[in-house]
Design goal:
The structure is a single chain. The protein has about 900 residues and is mostly beta strands. The chain contains twelve helices and 60 strands. The chain is about 15% helix and about 40% strand. Helix 6 packs across helix 7.
């Protein structure tokens, strides 16, 4: 895990001063880097050294790539934000600072630990410090900074400051602000002794316009901008004391017309009398892109469930009792409504019959469905019947029947008149105007779903990352490649050639905000312009890299390396780009290429202390299981490895792990599952991660076959002591570890965390996080039986470690979180009791208050230490500790 531990403590006054500049000479850095590796004796890494390790994150490139910002964070929170000149050696550091942003190539802004805004002139090193800053934004295309500051009397002010001239405009009594670069304006709210106000500040001419003002019995919230910046919407809410006599209203303001429309429920004849306007994550306030419709949430006054009443669990109910009472025939679920401000017309979109929705691409129609229609059923997500509702006419029509449920089942186009969906192993389009369905991929001769998946469920599609709206083309993935398909079915083009060399090509989202943009119960797909340059990530077994693609030039290779590459950043005004590269024996380092044809340059090497210590290497292993399937695994060598010495080995199990080949692993005592590869290799262990494939109905024996075959292969070829082998896993890997030791005595010690040990009791359990029966996990999912308990009872017994506990000869350390919502800790207790009754060696650790992985550092450290002590005793003959 790579935590971001930046914290802000907003305190104290304002001052301006000149700060020292810190210089790092790259040549000296590289001499140090390579000198240690070649001329100095290496040290043995111990737990006392782990605190030296940090995590590197590439942050931003300045406008013309003259400066690069990056952060270095530590587990103890001693984090630093750096800004480095991409051509020279000049470097600034900002201890504990965050939210770093460049203004052109001249200034850099960041928030300090004390809540100070640090504005640094990168050319002169002069720094201005503004105290008590709560948040800030940069005005796009200018040198202006928008600041929200806390005043000495506790009130807040809004300041528009120019970084070059240092001139400011200040507004007082501010509650909050919302900036929109398209409008070049800020909406802000104020609160004085008598009034609350929402107003608009035009940043170009510095004029302000009051949108609405009310006595202090109201407050303004949930302010949202139209995407184009032409209008805003907001909620006007009565304060607590006035909710009985006043209603929450919706305001909509068109900037160019200086017109405010207000939706007041009390003035709408068809507004449900038992509902109030509200906003939630799935029933939120938003403006259609054309500005004609406003969407907002409605909620009934909810009476809390009386927990003292007898629970009635009826096997014929659509949902289990906890989910049933939570939704109460969907009465407790927020609904979505639409309002046409200029017509002052209002309709409910969702209701108890159709409580879930997504908007069509033009936001004039809604896709409606009820997820309980096909309940009760055994899979995690029931199939869906999808209806189209015309918001204007209220006509509703069934368009998709028995459609694959879940997020991958239905994807909504981001332009006007089409729905794209995946069904019967193909991508389809539905034309909302003609009412026709068309199969887009049936003639392409390629599979677009994961037919090689060894889960029993229907194979899921590889994905649909988005569209080019102007060209009306859709991007879809097969196993390796990216396809561009004309939405009317006239043609399809394979943009990449990954199938030929088994390289996977995938489009990198423009931004996290864009990739996660919600569409009520779904999410919007990426929207790309016809002339956009797309960034594409590539992954092969032993290579990773990046490409650019655009319609004019096609694919252009940027980098391809036998390393793990990530965190690629570029700018619109420069050909330069930066990225991070690493492998198991090379800590992450920041690399820049100043143009597509220039040589790459190392800007920053993290964890220089790494080169002072003995370290291991990683190697891809190929092996064949008993079925003749060729598989891979990753072998990590012990630090200070000598070929004439035999070493113990720990095998970590969990499905396919060969992608870990090039990942650098920081040594650490803070591990959520207690296992850390670098800890073990530094202590003189081989660590092996074999890939595992499964036969439906026999997941246990499949794991045994693959792990034993892989282990025998590496023992035969490497300096491994076959009498000192350990096995460990967590969750499904915990299950595999437990099952494997019931079938072989190859391993001298084992560790299993949050393990499934009894397929029968696990099947007949509620997945409380989903409030659903656990049937789906076994019949369709990761547990891979493929049939119900009553269709194949022997398979449930055959694959359960608890029913083979009498064969266990391997000492086992079990652990679980007491509040595990994924695998109940009783699963670990069952196996513990079986081994206890049989007189086997088993220690079990139950961590109070913890879920499926451990989050408290004291528990992470405790588990990490105990797992290592367990293997040290059994595999290395070290001292038996008292807790044993």
């Amino acid at each position: 895990m790579r935590p971001n531990n930046i914290k802000y403590n907003r305190k104290t006054g304002t001052l301006s001063k000149r700060v020292p500049v810190f210089y790092i000479v790259l040549t000296a850095l590289l001499i140090s880097f390579f000198g240690f590796a070649q001329n100095n004796p290496k040290k043995q890494l111990t737990a006392a050294d782990y605190h030296l390790w940090s995590y590197l994150k590439a942050e931003k490139l300045s406008e013309n790539a003259k400066w690069v910002s990056f952060s270095v964070s530590y587990e103890n929170g001693s984090d630093t934000l750096f800004v480095k000149n991409s051509k020279g050696t000049k470097i600034y550091n900002f201890s504990g600072a965050g939210k770093g942003e460049f203004i052109g190539d001249n200034w850099f802004c960041a928030i300090s630990l004390k809540g100070e805004l640090l504005i640094t002139d990168l050319l002169t090193s002069k720094q201005e410090i503004t105290a008590k800053v709560l948040r800030y934004d940069l005005r796009v295309g200018t040198k202006d900074i928008i600041l929200l500051k806390k005043q000495s009397d506790g009130k807040k002010e809004l300041e528009l400051k120019n970084a070059a001239s240092n001139k400011s405009i200040i507004l007082n009594d501010i509650v909050n602000y919302w900036y929109n670069p398209e409008a070049d304006a800020v909406v802000y709210t104020t609160k004085s002794e008598n009034n609350t106000t929402i107003a608009l500040l035009n940043l170009s001419d510095k004029t302000t316009t009051v949108i609405s003002s009310n006595p202090n019995v109201f407050e303004y919230s949930d302010i949202v901008w139209q995407k184009s910046g032409n209008s805003i919407a907001f909620l006007q809410q009565p304060l607590n004391n006035d909710k009985k006599t006043a209603h929450t209203c919706v305001g909509y303001y068109i900037i160019a017309e200086h017109t405010l429309y207000t939706f007041n429920p009390a003035q709408q004849d068809n507004f449900p009398a038992d509902m109030e306007i509200m906003s939630s994550s799935f029933a939120y306030l938003s403006i259609s892109e054309d500005g004609e419709r406003i969407f907002f949430g409605l909620q009934k006054t909810v009476i809390p469930v009386d927990s003292s009443q007898v629970q009635t669990w009826n096997a014929q109910d659509k949902f289990l009792y906890p989910a049933k009472v939570q939704i109460d025939q969907w009465d407790r679920t927020a609904k979505v409504a639409v309002w046409w401000p200029e017509q002052n017309r209002f309709n409910c979109i969702t209701d108890n019959q159709f409580p879930k929705m997504m908007l069509s691409g033009d936001q004039k129609q809604a896709l409606l469905y009820n997820p309980q229609q096909y309940e009760p059923q055994a899979n995690r997500d029931a199939p869906l019947d999808i209806y189209i509702l015309n918001l204007e006419t209220e006509d509703r029509k069934l368009v998709l029947q028995n459609q694959l449920g879940g997020e991958t089942g239905v994807c909504v186009s981001i332009y006007e008149k089409h729905i794209v969906y995946f069904k019967d192993k193909h991508w389809w389009v539905y034309d909302l105007e003609s009412g026709l369905h068309k199969n887009l991929t049936k003639d392409l001769g390629v599979t677009f779903s994961d037919e090689e998946s060894d889960w029993p469920e229907e194979a899921s599609p590889f994905g649909n990352p988005g569209w080019i709206q102007d060209d009306k083309t859709l991007f879809v993935y097969d196993k390796y490649d990216i396809w561009s398909i004309v939405i009317d079915g006239r043609g399809a083009v394979r943009l990449t050639r990954g199938r030929e060399n088994k390289t996977v090509y995938r489009i990198v989202s423009k931004s996290k905000d864009e990739s996660n943009k919600m569409n009520f119960e779904g999410s919007y797909k990426g929207q790309f312009g016809a002339n956009d340059r797309l960034l594409i990530k590539t992954e092969a077994l032993e290579h990773t890299g990046y490409y650019f693609w655009d319609k004019k030039n096609g694919l252009k290779s940027l980098l391809d390396k036998k390393m793990h590459t990530s965190q690629f950043i570029t700018t619109a005004k420069s050909e330069a780009y930066v990225y991070v590269e690493e492998n198991f024996n090379l800590p992450p380092r920041l690399v820049i290429k100043e143009s597509l044809n220039s040589k790459e340059k190392i800007l920053f090497q993290s964890n220089l202390q790494h080169f002072k210590y003995n370290w291991g290497n990683s190697k891809l292993i190929t092996y064949t299981n008993s079925k003749g399937t060729v598989l891979n695994g990753v072998l990590f060598y012990p630090a200070n490895y000598h070929t004439d010495k035999k070493y113990p080995m720990v095998i970590h199990v969990y499905e396919k792990q060969s992608k870990e080949l090039y990942n650098y692993v920081n040594p650490s005592q803070n591990n959520p599952t207690g296992f850390n590869i670098a800890n073990f290799t530094s202590k003189g262990y081989f660590v092996f991660l074999p890939d595992i494939v499964y036969e439906i109905g026999n997941p246990g024996s499949s794991a045994v076959d693959c792990v034993v075959s892989a282990t025998r292969k590496v023992i035969a070829r490497e300096s491994i002591d076959s009498t000192r082998l350990g096995i460990t896993g967590h969750s499904y890997g915990g299950y595999e570890a437990d099952y494997i030791i019931t079938q072989t005595n190859m391993f001298k010690a084992a560790v299993a965390g949050a393990a499934i040990t009894d397929y029968v009791s696990g099947y007949l359990r509620v997945a409380w996080g989903l409030q659903k029966p656990n049937f789906w996990h076994y019949e369709f999912g990761q547990l891979r039986i493929g049939k119900s308990l009553y269709e194949d009872y022997p398979a449930y017994l055959r694959n359960s470690p608890v029913y083979h506990a009498d064969k266990v000869e391997t000492p086992l350390l079990s652990w679980a979180g007491e509040m595990d919502s994924v695998v109940h800790y009783y699963q670990s207790i069952e196996f513990y009791l079986a081994l206890r009754r049989l007189g086997k060696i088993n220690l079990m650790l139950i961590y109070p208050g913890e879920d499926h992985v451990l989050m408290e550092e004291k528990h992470q450290q405790d588990l990490t230490g105990r797992i290592e002590q367990w293997f040290d005793y059994y595999l290395k003959g070290e001292k038996r500790l008292e807790w044993f």
